[in-house]
From TrEMBL:
Domain Pyrroline-5-carboxylate reductase catalytic N-terminal: 10-108
Gene3D superfamilies documented for this protein: NAD(P)-binding Rossmann-like Domain, ProC C-terminal domain-like
Name this protein carries in UniProt: Pyrroline-5-carboxylate reductase
Top EC category: oxidoreductase
Known role: Catalyzes the reduction of 1-pyrroline-5-carboxylate (PCA) to L-proline.
Organism field: Microbacterium salsuginis
PANTHER family, per the entry: PYRROLINE-5-CARBOXYLATE REDUCTASE (PTHR11645), PYRROLINE-5-CARBOXYLATE REDUCTASE 3 (PTHR11645:SF0)
Keyword Magnesium belongs to the record: no
Keyword NADP part of the UniProt annotation: yes
Length: 280
């Protein structure tokens, strides 16, 4: 289907924020041969216009663009809103060539829904990327359908590795993964917000507080990545016995952060299951 240096023709049906990020990652990687991206409006389509080897199409101008893009692609990524997925699949099913790989970007829509509409000749995978894909540092969970063989999985890996790292999981773990890597950036941003407020409370200006908070977290993350050490070990190195950091960490431990994060991710998982039930 493809060689070792390029991805086959791709179609992104519903190239919104996440789909658009992946389009840009593929372009940056140099692996793109031909990419077609569809969006409902001209304004949204124009956001991807001009990218190398990308044809960005507005459905309000070309209503048949989804079917045309799917017919010409070897990998089709479905990024429309979950409620719109079944109708889109029924639209493209007649034009898909056997063996075309279809990858879901839609939260809460099961592989079974895709396979029941597309049939056994179409390998299906379900993905869960996260927003750091916008800067090439995403984490994508990837679950394989019943007819997605090693070649299809390998191609999906190469595609999502253009925007970060890939974690293979059974579909039953996709929702759990979404509470960690999917929602995780929001938890991080919340910590930066609160750290910034604490700095302002110590008398720093808004700009100073934001600079210190953001760069401290960014620098700590870079150190974690560069060192390869366990985060607990890095924390211990900062925490001198009977020092100021030790006193602060004691307060954080007393706040039972372990319980807070467990309850937060449990709440996200419960909501993911509710959304999945609504999508059935």
């Amino acid at each position: 289907m493809t060689d070792d240096t390029a991805l086959p023709p791709l179609a992104f049906l519903g190239a919104g924020s996440m789909g658009g990020a992946i389009v840009q990652g593929v372009v940056r990687s140099g692996l793109a041969t031909r990419v077609t991206a569809t969006n409902r409006t001209v304004a949204k389509a124009e956001e991807l216009a001009g990218l190398d080897r990308v044809t960005s199409v507005a459905l309000e101008r070309e209503p048949a663009a989804n079917a045309e893009a799917a017919a010409a692609a070897e990998i089709v990524l479905v990024g429309v809103k979950p409620a719109m997925v079944p109708d889109l699949l029924r639209e493209i099913a007649p034009v898909l060539r056997p063996g075309t790989i279809v990858i879901s970007l839609a939260a809460g829509v099961t592989i079974a829904t895709f396979e029941s509409i597309l049939g056994p000749s179409i390998p299906v995978l379900r993905s869960m990327p996260n927003t750091p894909a916008l800067v090439g540092r995403g984490v994508t969970g990837l679950a394989s359908g019943t007819t997605a063989g090693p070649d299809a999985v390998a191609l999906a890996h190469r595609l999502f590795e253009t925007v970060g790292t890939v974690v293979d999981v059974p579909e039953g773990r996709i929702d759990a993964l979404s509470t960690i890597s999917g929602s995780g950036p929001a938890y991080f941003f919340l910590l930066v917000e609160e750290f910034t407020k604490a700095a302002i409370g110590k008398g720093f200006s808004d700009a100073e507080a934001r600079l210190m908070a953001e760069q401290t977290f960014i620098g700590a993350a870079a150190l974690l990545e560069a060192s390869g050490d366990d985060p607990a070990e890095l924390r211990r190195r900062v925490t001198s016995p009977k020092g100021t950091t030790e006193r602060a960490v004691e307060v954080l431990h007393d706040a039972r952060l372990d319980d807070v994060f467990a309850r937060a991710t449990d709440a996200a998982l419960a909501r993911a299951k509710e959304l999945a039930d609504l999508g059935r």
